[in-house]
Amino acid sequence: MEFNWASSHRYGAARLAHPSTIDEARELVAGADRVRALGTRHTFTGLADTPGLLLSTTGLPMDLEIDEAAGTATVAGGARYGEVAIALDARGWALATMASLPHISVAGAVATGTHGSGNRTGSLAAAVRAVEIIGPDGALRRVSRGEPDFAGSVVAIGALGVVTRVTLDIEPSYVIRQAVYRDLPWSRAETDFDALTGAAYSVSLFLDWASDRIAQVWLKSRGDLPGELFGVAPADEPVHMLAGATTEAVTGQQGMPGPWHDRLPHFKLAFTPSRGEELQSEYLLPRSAVQEAFAGLRPLGRRISELLQITEVRTVAADDLWLSCAYGTDVVGIHFTWVKDIERVYALLPDIEAVLLPLGARPHWGKCFVTTDVADLYPRMADFRALRARVDPGGKFGSALVDKLLG
Fold first, then answer.
1. Most CB within 10 Å of its CB: which of 33, 63, 170, 272?
2. Which pTM was predicted?
3. Mean pLDDT, the chain, as a whole number?
């Protein structure tokens, strides 16, 4: 069987199918005992795995449909965000946000609550207007914003069926400028966090926990960029957040205006995302707890830095999606890009979680974490369980890990 994107998990499914039409996908789902959908494989664990059928959605045609009056675009769930963005921009339309990687599939990113950054910007899932899902009997159902099941059907980690089509909020295309500010004092994260994260439309802080500096601050703005950020001028040459990585892979910087889809992600679609040889973890905690989180993690700095490629800190606005890491509160995402040393990373994660979980942090569903006791972190988990029991009473779309996480 094949591996995920980072080769950190080998799928154990009995069968992998690549349908090219929705009708073919429906037939495959109806005829299988156990099914999990598989997108661009950017999940670092066995979350997407099953002992039964892995159904890849990447072969379904994008079939972009734009409803200008409604301000929506409908696309295949297996389409990559970068390809959707290019097609949208060609017709004069845009998304409000993108993740750092444009390589990820729409349905997979939405299902796990993946996000970009911005104090007033929600996750990718917050832009979903409707989802079309294949149920256990192969029937299609569509759930739209405002309907009773909608808030439980968007971030659903694949447990409610195979998402074939997603309808997204769109807006007219716009231009973004991006610049990188290097080597700010760590104290700015402690005393001026709100000013830092509010300095542009989208802001990312990159740091290593071992030094007394914020290595880089990436600002993405719809308007002008500041000439200085706390006395630091923007870099006058392209910068990569990972030491030694090629700057050809990162999106345009130095304040040069460019299309939204070529600035909001950190990486270009044509290049290997990030470094590729890595593991990732992320914990999203209430914004009000960020300073406690920093204070608790700093003593672990040396141990973290021994396994770390980089940490990225971003902000995400609250939403009302039941299994979203931003459910009910504005959050700060503390993201760790690790070297690919599975044993040592997983040995360190319990100590990180001992700091962050008591503060209300929710692990990103698609990344590496240790705890499986997450149900109490989601106030609407009982509602989600009831929804799941109703739409998939036989548990066709479950797995050992999914069932453990959902309780």
1. 170
2. 0.97
3. 96
Angle at CA of residue 113, ends 25 and 360, nearest 5°: 145
Q: Whole-angstrom Cα distance, residue 405 to residue 362?
A: 12
Could you tell me the maximum CA-CA distance found in the chain, to the nearest angstrom? 63
CA distance 270 to 249: 8
Please list the helix, strand and coil fractions of the chain in percent, rounded to the nearest 5, in that order.
25, 25, 45
Q: Taking the chain, what is the end-to-end CA distance rounded to the nearest angstrom?
A: 28
DSSP strands (E only) in 145-209 = 162-169, 171-172, 175-185, 202-207
Torsion over CA of 170, 173, 174 and 177, rounded to 10 degrees? 90
HSE of 3, CA atoms in CB hemisphere, 13 A: 7
Query: Which is higher by pLDDT, 246 or 314?
Result: 314
Domains and CATH numbers, the chain: 175-363 (3.30.70.2520)
Torsion angle of C-alpha atoms 73, 77, 83, 86, degrees rounded to 10: 10
Q: How far apart are CA 131 and CA 386, in angstroms?
A: 19
